[in-house]
């Protein structure tokens, strides 16, 4: 498979499984703040307060759309059933419904991490729940249907989501010297 990293100069680097850069994709002139690959889309957020959505299939990369955020820059992104989820630096989580087909204003799902940045988010349980983590030392499980926090907890240091946690027991790790 491929691995993606973002750089200070606004480019995304595509790495092969041989640990070599095989492609550089210029997305912005500003610092990349988040890169995620989800459901055939490469999602790139930057300090320019926008998200670049790139079709990424079979080693081919084509621009699908730019999405302007306005309020803050993205720190976490996910794409599910045509909807773009954006966790922003200010803690707000936006959902853009059918983002590739329309330019509707985003729906604010919630403002979960009041005291810090949202560092990770992912849809789980078929999109019925959102798992978030942030630098406010909180991990939250949010029900998207009734917009309630089902569970939340504190960890010993800022937390971010890691790996494909759907198949492992560890769902988040702290970014300090603490064990997950």
Helix content: under 10%
Mean pLDDT over all positions: 83
Strand element count: 17
> Shape from CA axes?
globular
How far is the first residue's CA from the last residue's CA?
Answer: 26 Å
Oligomerization status of the protein chains:
single chain
Class of secondary structure makeup: mainly beta
Q: How do the strands of the widest beta sheet line up side by side?
A: 4-5-6-7
- Note the main sheet: 4 strands, antiparallel
Put simply, the count of helices is 0
Structural Rg: 16 Å
Topology order in helix (H) and strand (E) letters: EEEEEEEEEEEEEEEEE
Low-confidence stretches: 165-180
Percent strand: over 45%
Q: Could you provide a short overview of the structure?
A:
This protein is mostly beta strands and 180 residues long. It contains no helices and 17 strands. The radius of gyration is 16 Å and the shape is globular.
